[in-house]
Amino acid sequence: MRLVSLLPSATEIVYALGLGGDLVGVTFECEVPAADRAGKTVVVGGTDTRGMTPGEIDAHVRAQLAAGADLYTLHADALAGLNPELILTQDLCRVCALPSGHVADALDHLGCRADVLSLDPYTLDEVLASILAVGDAAGVPERARALVDDLRDRLAAVAAAVGDRPRPRVAVVEWTDPPFTAGHWIPDLVRAAGGEPVATRPGARSVQVPWSELRAAAPQVVLVTPCGFRLDGAVGQAQTVAEHFPGTPVWAVDADGLVVRPGPRLVDGVEAIAAVLHPDAVPAPPAGTVARVA
Description:
Blueprint: E1 3-5, H1 8-16, E2 23-27, H2 34-37, E3 41-46, H3 54-66, E4 72-74, H4 76-81, E5 86-89, H5 100-110, E6 115-118, H6 124-137, H7 141-162, E7 169-176, E8 179-181, E9 183-184, H8 186-192, E10 196-197, E11 201-202, E12 207-208, H9 211-216, E13 221-224, H10 230-242, E14 250-253, H11 255-258, H12 266-277, E15 290-293
Parallel strand pairs: 1-2, 1-5, 2-3, 5-6, 7-10, 7-13, 9-11, 13-14
Antiparallel strand pairs: 3-4, 7-8, 8-12, 14-15
Helix pairs in contact: 6-7, 7-12
């Protein structure tokens, strides 16, 4: 089956299901193994935000949305030339990826008959269900079930390790300028890791909040998880966030690798957060995933 992924998390699901050889099209943000990259066509482009500050990125996004402009560009002719059979897309967030409606309109215009599967999870359980949906659509349901069973086993292992321990209050700063508190599945990750999420929006979109609201929630731990900045960038931002929470442990997190992309690696995120909250109960996280800041 010829697959096209229009969002990074779907690409991760495809590879986790052993379907990397079937993947012919990706976005400019998708992480593809170096050995496979030459065989993948980039069908979605966008603004390269490397070198931009969080405030500059926020201003760019707001200006584009206010003007009714798209944040991503679908290379429709390249897509049609791939002759895809299944396209994985989303309607979850205009800031994160191309909406599925744009894809459907382009396919109608081009006369392309590919199936389109929109992945729009808002909770951790829905993320796991989306893996099953991809497996079904791609003709490998048994692989998807095995993968999800393994992920659930890992979640159960964390739950068993931290279940009898006090749950520290955890605030998650998903963006720092302006500050956004976390929504969607991220509160589920904190809870699965043995924490009590505060000032979050479980199962709903993340929202901008004042620092005073985050402080008023009296967190005992603060996680800084800015999308697109990896750990090094998150560390710099977490140092600024720490100024708003004197005396509270503040941790930077590789958000792309652990918390913001709704795919299999969210369970890595649960394990890493559990190691932050309960370091004597679970193994230490891999190097380069989390870091405490002064």
